[in-house]
Amino acid sequence: MSALEFCRWVQYSAPLVAMRQSPILFPIIATVHLMGLALIGGAVLVVDLRLLGLGLHRQPVAGLAHDAERWLLRGLLVMVSTGILLFMCFATKYYYLTFFWVKMAALLLVIVFTLSVHRRVAMANEADVSPVRCKLVALVSLSLWTIVAVGGRYIGFP
Ligand code: HEM
User: Fold this and answer.
1) Domain that holds residue 70
2) If you take atom 14 of ligand 1, which residue's CA is the nearest one?
3) Cα 61 from Cα 4, distance rounded (Å)
4) How confident is the model at residue 9 (pLDDT cuts 50, 70, 90)?
5) Whose Cα sits closest to atom 16 in ligand 1?
């Protein structure tokens, strides 16, 4: 079965047909998807703005990163679960949208980056990491998350 055949099979399966026939289900799930975005956005911004030296100076970065990571992971859980449902509802439409695959590639990259390089720098002792490295890591993180969000916006309104 090709990826396109799988998308077709999923989209026309009984639960997804029922989801499309409901006037409220897709909008509710899309709204929860956006609320998850707010959770992730907040968790990412608190740490990356601090790494850029913009605000929260009295808070040690490692403490902020530790507390924010819990909300980031909860936000990711909400985004991935609602995103998969949204995708399945119009799978063959999204399959042909370049922005969907750009978003998925950026999402994979940013998750790996966030849980490896970014986490190591944010949770290190501040004295051991150069401010330039902190800023660079924050800029890469913010850029990748922005690609994911803009990609999401574009696929909603191709
Ligand atoms: C953290 C990760 C994610 C972020 C930040 C994100 C962000 C967004 C944003 C900003 C939108 C536009 C919402 C609107 O304007 O109405 C969107 C829509 C969408 N997202 Fe995501 N998303 C994420 C994960 C996912 C995943 C994992 C999938 C699928 C596997 C997905 C599938 C979709 C789909 C299909 C839409 C379009 C809904 C429509 O047609 O209105 N998203 N996303």
Assistant:
1) 3-156
2) 153
3) 45
4) very high
5) 156
CB atoms within 10 A of CB 58: 5
Q: Whose CA is nearest to atom 33 of ligand 1?
A: 83
For ligand 1, the distance from its centroid to the CA atom of residue 156, given in whole angstroms, is 7
Q: For the segment 65-124, what is each residue's pLDDT rounded down to a tens digit?
A: 999 999 999 999 999 999 999 999 999 999 999 999 999 999 999 999 999 999 999 999
d(CA 151, CA 81): 17
pLDDT band at 126 (very low <50, low <70, confident <90, very high): confident
pLDDT digits (tens, 9 = 90+) for 10-40: 999 999 999 999 999 999 999 999 999 999 9
- Count up the domains in the chain and report the number: 1
